[in-house]
Amino acid sequence: MSAEATIAVNLARCVGSTMCIQVAPSVFALTDEGQSCVIDAGGDPMERIVEAAENCPMEAIRVEDLRTGTVLFPLTEES
Amino acid sequence: MALSVSDDLTAPEVIADPHSYYRRLRDQNPVHWNDRWGGWVLTRHDDVVQVLRDSEAFSSDRMGYLERELTENEVEPIAPIFDVLSRWIVFTDPPLHTKLRMLVNRKFSPKMVETYRGTVRKIVNDVLDEIEPQGHMEVVRDFAYQVPMTVILELMGVPDLIRVKIKEWSEQLGLFFFIRADEPRRRQFATQGISALAGHLTHYLTHVIEEKAKNPDNDLISLLLRAEMDGELTRDDVVATCVLLAFGGHETTMNLIANGTLALIRHPDQWERLKEDPGIIKTAVEELSRYDGSVMTTVRWARRDVEIGGETIKAGQRVLVGLSGANRDPAQFEDPDVLDLTRDPNLHVAFAHGIHVCVGAPLARMEAQEAFTALTSRLPCPKLETEELEYLPTVVGRSLRALRVVF
Question: Model's pTM, two decimal places?
Fold first, then answer.
């Protein structure tokens, strides 16, 4: 599946809860440092990716629609 | 090396000022074998994060460990409570942990939590409406407890009538495992019916769950029951998770609000700063969690030999993971003993780290944000009625018995 999303994991926030990996296991994986990283932005359907971001207890995941640039999560950007 | 730090983790001076104790330990021997407690004590941020991230090498199966420690005669009277506690998300390892966590996480994600903010704001202000005209309060009982208790019961869908009882039962349950392991009273509690008392909470919630199964709603208990119907959870898992939520849903947030209020009272400039600029509330809550959080330590058990900071933790040994110690580590935080409500970045571990990072953290954060915003905007910075503060003598929780203030 080709990627439809730009996904960013904020490493200053990620605490390695692995919630994203449970929801979208083909997109996210754990690094040796115990933090989340994107292994294949097209690995799971878009709604799964957004659900993964929503389930992050730290709001460490940002998802953008690759074509339109619309931010799909978080809905309100923090400073 | 001769240590000038005692191994008594519940000595009165440690309970009164754990931060100084853990600082001395970190300065002198950051990976310390505590003979009295019978395990390693970690106080450096790096070491703490290493252990919390490595759930393969370090188990959270507290009940399994306790069970091995006690004799059969000692286990028998507390067997029912053991069964409940052994199913708690915090004390389980994957795969059961993953299953429970995923379910509960949905209701506690930051996105879901935002939808409760209006309700929480109203609860906070209703509580303050009662307090404001009086000119004094006991912060723990009148404020810090009221807010999270009301919120968690509403989220779970448990009738509010029973809240006084739930507090009493939760305190009993807290005494059971927050108290130090070598405390003779723990065994006494166990044998003299502590489990029966805590069992009331289980019994009551079992009844609520049965009723809810007949009339499902949109609440957390109904969500868990749907997972039971789908064959993902057993009824025992549902009951245990509800006991955890009723207990953990108020106890720790209560302490966070009480400890944070005390920190603000002791730093009136920071109280005024928040009052003048409520826009800093998010970093403020992170800083209050770091500065004097509600959970000082958490425990892990090594599954295999692991090297931490030059010492070998052997398979089977336990590790006291010093969250409070890590949160004041100068290697991670500039001026760690200074309360700075705008500190950013703030990579504290007050809610732990890794797969067991507090599932309720987004909710606790939001509740604390609402509580401190309303408190500082509505009341002048209070004065303590007494400087003699008493904390529960536990290694885990940082729990004020009472906090009397006038304003």
Answer: 0.90
